[in-house]
From TrEMBL, chain A:
<keyword id="KW-1133">Transmembrane helix</keyword>
<dbReference type="InterPro" id="IPR002541">
    <property type="entry name" value="Cyt_c_assembly"/>
</dbReference>
<dbReference type="GO" id="GO:0015232">
    <property type="term" value="F:heme transmembrane transporter activity"/>
</dbReference>
<dbReference type="InterPro" id="IPR045062">
    <property type="entry name" value="Cyt_c_biogenesis_CcsA/CcmC"/>
</dbReference>
<feature type="transmembrane region" description="Helical">
    <location>
        <begin position="56"/>
        <end position="80"/>
    </location>
</feature>
<feature type="transmembrane region" description="Helical">
    <location>
        <begin position="197"/>
        <end position="221"/>
    </location>
</feature>
<feature type="transmembrane region" description="Helical">
    <location>
        <begin position="127"/>
        <end position="146"/>
    </location>
</feature>
<comment type="similarity">
    <text>Belongs to the CcmC/CycZ/HelC family.</text>
</comment>
<dbReference type="GO" id="GO:0020037">
    <property type="term" value="F:heme binding"/>
</dbReference>
UniProtKB/TrEMBL annotation, chain B:
<keyword id="KW-1133">Transmembrane helix</keyword>
<keyword id="KW-0201">Cytochrome c-type biogenesis</keyword>
<keyword id="KW-1003">Cell membrane</keyword>
<keyword id="KW-0997">Cell inner membrane</keyword>
<dbReference type="GO" id="GO:0017004">
    <property type="term" value="P:cytochrome complex assembly"/>
</dbReference>
<comment type="function">
    <text>Required for the export of heme to the periplasm for the biogenesis of c-type cytochromes.</text>
</comment>
<dbReference type="InterPro" id="IPR052075">
    <property type="entry name" value="Heme_exporter_D"/>
</dbReference>
<keyword id="KW-0472">Membrane</keyword>
<dbReference type="GO" id="GO:0015886">
    <property type="term" value="P:heme transport"/>
</dbReference>
């Protein structure tokens, strides 16, 4: 397996591979996200209890789910970076963290905006909301540590350790609605049960989740390419890659 | 279609302010992220060009000396 995987650990190979996938993933993201959100905003029926305010769900749930799964991905790449000393896994921290932080911020903001008309308050220090806020601080902490050292390897090491320790927060967020009495409702979507939701609302939600997932992938690919370039700017392969693009840009 | 008119769509059954604020903030946050990434890319390109020019100057000077 290692022999097969080895060429993929080369920065230039990853850079080109991501570059080849990026336009397709970005196009798929635009398509699915557009379809999911338009379906959710325009065609899905209003909720019999919450009226049209529930339409915030089509942003809130996908971003909240992704904020957690991206953190797990962040911690796994930190682990791989520490254990196998794979620099590309370290660099992935810098690509994933800003995307995860933004999605966490969106889930918090849309949650607050949804909470105002439904619960009567923008914010409440309850378990789900507080643990999600801690997730945002963890992302920011990882990003800050990564860029805090003049030697990038030290920064990646420190950020990776914080990322791994912070994983403890993920089950706390996930089960906060069951362990504590909170204002927040229980999970809408679970893997094994049929969700208690009409298909006319469920399908646009699932498509939105897929759309946000693809959007996150596209953003991470783009940022990973940037990070590879930043680290390898003085390597000869960049000249072929970057120099060529430069000439094409000059010709036009 | 869940709405009869544009007006009803904007009003969102009285929740228009909240729904559009939520979608607006989300769009804004993602736009900032995208623009930030694109600008980082342009900055790298500029840095690369600067380094290339420096190397060219160095090579030329070497030629002049010899």
């Amino acid at each position: 397996m290692w022999r097969w995987l080895h060429p993929y650990a080369k920065p230039e190979v990853v850079y080109r591979l991501l570059g080849r996938w990026l336009p397709w993933v970005a196009a798929a993201a635009a398509l699915t996200l557009g379809a999911g959100l338009v379906w959710g905003l325009v065609f899905a029926p209003a909720d019999y209890q919450q009226g049209d305010s529930y339409r915030i769900i089509f942003v809130h749930v996908p971003t909240a789910m992704l904020s957690m799964s991206l953190y797990v991905a962040l911690a796994i790449s930190a682990l791989v970076g520490r254990v196998w000393q794979l620099k590309m896994a370290d660099w992935a921290l810098a690509a994933i963290a800003p995307v995860g932080a933004t999605l966490t911020f969106i889930s918090l903001a849309t949650g607050a905006i949804w909470g105002k008309p439904m619960w009567g308050t923008w914010w409440e220090w309850d378990a789900r909301l507080t643990s999600q806020l801690i997730l945002l601080f963890l992302y920011i902490g990882v990003l800050a540590l990564y860029h805090a050292f003049s030697d990038n390897r030290n920064g990646a090491k420190a950020a990776g350790i914080l990322a791994m320790v912070g994983v403890i927060n993920i089950p706390i967020i996930r089960y906060s609605v069951e362990w504590w009495n909170t204002l927040h409702q229980g999970a809408t979507l679970t893997v094994f049960e049929r969700p208690p939701m009409a298909n006319s609302m469920l399908f646009p939600l699932l498509i939105s989740i897929l759309g946000f997932g693809l959007l996150a992938a596209a953003l991470i690919f783009h940022r990973m390419r940037n990070e590879i370039l930043r680290q390898e700017l003085r390597r000869p392969w960049v000249k072929n890659e970057f120099g060529k693009e430069l000439n094409e840009a000059e010709r036009t | 279609m869940a709405f009869d008119s544009w007006q009803a769509f904007i009003e969102m059954g009285g929740y228009g302010f909240y729904v559009w604020l939520a979608f607006g903030i989300s769009f804004f946050a993602i736009a900032v992220l995208v623009i930030n990434g694109l600008r980082a890319r342009t900055k790298l390109q500029r840095e690369f060009d600067k380094e290339q020019r420096r190397q060219q100057r160095l090579a030329q000077r070497k030629k002049e000396v010899s």
